[in-house]
Amino acid sequence: MPESTAQLIDGKVYAERLRASVAGQVAALKASNGLQPGLAVVLVGDDAASQIYVRSKGEQSLAAGMHSVTHRLPGDTTQAELERLVGELNVDPLIHGVLVQLPLPKPLDEKRVLALLNPDKDVDGLTVANAGRLASGLSALVPCTPMGCMILLRETVGDLAGKRAVVVGRSVLVGRPIAQLLLQADCTVTIAHSRTRDLPAVCREADILVAAVGRPRMIGADWIKPGAAVIDVGINRVPFDDPVKAAEGRTKVVGDVDFKAASQVAGWITPVPGGVGLMTVAVLLQNTVAAAKLQAGIA
Ligand code: NDP
């Protein structure tokens, strides 16, 4: 296969830059206003992936100089207990951002928990209030992964106005908010999903193609317009290509895009791992600073 033609969008570089910027903002807020942004993360149960994410959120918020609290609750926590904690965090003056790690173990009801969360502290941007504000073109706390995608696009492609953008996936967490953000950036946006007809042809129209599906390497080179910017949100575990490693049951993470093949056609592309995923926590920290300023009435 010939050398890749696409420029690699290195999430590590942009995430580090954003974290450094957040640390600077936190130091300035402390010095000028005596305000230390505080983040509370709530984890229910012992899901292994969630534990890793939560640890990373705690470590990175502390490294940025923030106040950071992690509430680890047992898997048999009741709805009432969880809602009581969220209610307390809603009014805790030291906490400006509250993140309830999803998914919650059954039978806990995520929607009821999110409905209780103070939208001004909703640093994951998942409350109906923030989603509605985003859809109305108003300022909002925006979900972290979609915002991370936008930062990568602006840093690499630059001005997005007038570009044709196709988002594959319409989840509340990823697809819908990315589409709203692309629309705000004056892109012409198509949202594709499992019922879209002739998806490869739809994708081939995209100057910006965002894949948020959850299907390993679904998007091949022939789905991509030459020179397009390809943002791969997907995180999928698959067996190693090497049959020996695969036989040992070892797995690796791949995206929704066939990275090697797509790199021959795209103009820019995010790797998985090492792309969008690294941005998510950095944006969470930025959202917490924004939430702290909002609550303190600082412009
Ligand atoms: P969901 O399962 O909630 O949504 C997937 C979307 O993909 C749905 O809208 C679905 O369509 C669509 N879809 C499924 N199959 C097809 C298909 N064959 N053709 C076209 N569309 C299809 O997933 P999420 O949005 O939560 O996550 C998407 C991916 O992003 C996952 O791999 C997830 O792990 C990853 N992720 C990564 C993050 C990061 O930090 N990098 C953060 C969050 C998620 P329909 O609505 O019709 O069912």
Would you kindly provide a written description of the structure presented here, covering whatever features stand out?
By secondary structure, this protein is α/β, with parallel strands linked by helices. The chain has two domains: 85 residues, Rossmann fold (3-Layer(aba) Sandwich), CATH 3.40.50; 137 residues, 3-Layer(aba) Sandwich (Rossmann fold), CATH 3.40.50.720. The strands form three sheets. It has a six-stranded parallel β-sheet with strand order 1-11-8-7-5-6. The chain has a three-stranded parallel β-sheet with strand order 3-2-4, with helices on both faces. Helix 7 links the parallel strand 5 and strand 6. The radius of gyration is 20 Å and the shape is globular. The chain starts with 6 loop residues before the first strand and ends with a helix. The mean pLDDT is 96. It binds NADPH dihydro-nicotinamide-adenine-dinucleotide phosphate.
- Report the average pLDDT across residues: 96
Rough shape? Answer: globular
Please state the CA-atom Rg, rounded to the nearest Å. 20 Å
CATH architecture of the largest domain: 3-Layer(aba) Sandwich
Structural class, by secondary structure, is alpha/beta
The amount of helix comes to: 40-55%
Task: Note the main attributes of this structure.
alpha/beta, 11 strands, three-stranded parallel beta sheet, 41% helix, 11 helices, binds NADPH dihydro-nicotinamide-adenine-dinucleotide phosphate, 16% strand, Rossmann fold, 299 residues
